[in-house]
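Researcher: I'm comparing several assemblies side by side, and this is the next one on my list. It has 775 residues spread over two chains. Same procedure as the others: predict the full complex and return the structure.
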Amino acid sequence: MGRYNLAPQRVHKTATQLLQTKRAPASPPPWYPILSTVPPSSRLDRPPLQRSQLPGHKPPGGRKKSRLYKPLQLRYEEDRLRWEYFNDHPWELARPRVVLEDDGRDAERWDWSVPLDHALSRPRAGEVGERGESLDIEWEAVRARQAGRPINGEAVVQRQRYLITHGHPPQLAYDTARKEFYRHRHQVEIATRVAREEALAVGAFFGPGPLEVGMGLEDRAYEQWKGWAEKEVAAMKQMAGAAYTGTETESGREGLDVPEGPGVEAEELQEVAGSVPASSRGQLAQGGAGVHP
Amino acid sequence: MIIRSLLLRHGRRALPKPPTPSPVRTCRRSLTTAGASDVEATYQNPHADQHYIESAAGGTKSQAVHSLESRSSPPTIALEDDQIARDWHFFHHQKKHTEHIGSAVQKHYRPHEQVSNPPWPRDITLELLMASQAHIGHSTSLWNPSNAKYIFGVRGEHDPIHIISLDVTAAHLRRACKVVKGVTERGGLILFVGSREGQARIVVRAAELAQGCHLFSKWIPGSITNGQQILGKCRKKVVNEYDQEVTGFDDQLVQKAALKPDLVVCLNPLENYVLLHECGLNNIPTIGIVDTDANPTWVTYPIPANDDSLRSVQLIAGVLGRAGQEGQSARLEKAKRRIVDYRQDHGLSPPSKESEETRTKREKEQSLLAGADAFDVSEAAVYADADADEPERTDVTAEQVVNMERLAQMGSVDPGLLSEQLGLAAEQADVPYEVDAPLGQQRQQRQDEGAAKQVNPFQRPTEDAEQTSAWQGKGAESGRKE
């Protein structure tokens, strides 16, 4: 195969041939035995990855393009639920979310049969359920296991999927999960606000927020521009006044910050104007320091 | 501050001599009046020493003498010991009564542990690979169709990416682990290469575990094909089967070519095409992480995985390093029992017996050199660092003692004893991981293998490891490499 260099796959074969023809050293290299017992896998084969069409089913418009060797599109049931939820709540995507996993089995730890607002529905002490169980102890046992469950948009999707698989109609499942989430989020927001107010009441200072910082920067830029513009206007007025008097005032240009580089250069050129290299008069022996400092 | 440190340094010696004022005290008197009390106030050390210093510095002579007397009496020391014991008991009492309070912290992912304590080959699970993002490939438009068999599917509508099949990844990774272990078990030299940003630490760590070489900067093209020019000046050494250096080969080593690795592990094949090509030219097997945009034919053993995630790369490199560690420890363990079932073609002859005169001369030279090294410590340290950074650690593994072989050739030893030893080596040579073993059959198979060993006791130790592949069941073909 011209395109591919298959030497890496053939190391063992090559070594065997070299050993047989005694072109290599007498004993095989250290990798030789293990490569014969654990050979590399086959390469460059195209396994059929999907069916071209359903068996016994013909596409209406004649023959379809074969997708036999194209990888499958992966779709999951939750995708549709996510699509619906995040279209209804687009700002939920703006909230930061931890996607780091510990050991890959993190998702197994969370029990989605527990409502999302379980933390808020704590039973009164000593309350007894229908089967005679004490509800508050049960609640605490559930909290001990599920307190770390992240309650966010993804939790709504998971809870909804759980409810659908356990017999709820999809719309009811969506509403149930959504409203549990709303209740939880409402409570969190209130708790945050109250905490902030409490902190402010006892003298906390949270510093300027991002909007204040932005406004401050903008104000500073405006002030700078104002100072610059005032100077400009003064200079222009002075120049206009000088134009009618008929006297050259260099002082008027001072405000305009004209760089004086060209003036110096012109002066230096004047000095060497008479000396032109490769002319009939020739070049004066002035040295290059003045021209090329 | 200076005064304080003076006090601390000379306190014991200088201050207890009240009759003649010590230089420290005079200096102190002349320097400070009001500041002294501040200095002493900063010291709230409960030990008697400190009280003593305070009283000597701030108080009068008589107080200093008094405190000296009180300190030298034995009851004070006894009291201190008692206090220490009581503290100790109190600490353990507290520990005992409070250890069940609070929440139990579960084991969780700590990034630094991937380098300091990498997982073993037996710890590879699909969940771990998935948590390490080993399954995430590149955009579908960037794929190399040669990787079709490693791809599980396409995920995403607008910017689709390929998802790598993790069972394939795990299978290839375990296979690569076996190769690394097998090569190190036979004294092979492994080179770990990872030249992307952030890969340096794990590359060095893996090389450290597998006792191989590492390269985290650019591969100098030609280091294998033109090694004599590029690495010719690197130091070579001869080690025996216990990895101890053997001297006396210097004149022979000068003639030797630069070392080549026996196996190359490349964490980013895309950037190291030249290296892999050179390995192909020199018939050196390679292991590489192949993402969906890489070409799997560049390496001998591809590991289809994500090579952009540092966590995934660290997992794979760490596991391979651990496999190398397993192999090295197995080799050294066997060497301890005087079993050397591999040999290398170093082409070195044992150093000739030198005359007494030359030996004394050489020893003298070496001692002089050692003295010079010891004198210039800082420079020596710098050189040592430079050596550590060298991509090619050049050492030749020379097996001088192939006792088993000699014994078998002489035939003067009881064959039963020899076969017993060989069988022992065979059983420990290539033990499959527990997860790979078929349930219930492993033991039976191993017994069969042992029986086959008994029939054929006069095998050369070199082929011994080859025929011990209980896992692959190829024991019958063991003699075919002769």
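Model: For your comparison table: The two ends of chain B are 79 Å apart (CA to CA).
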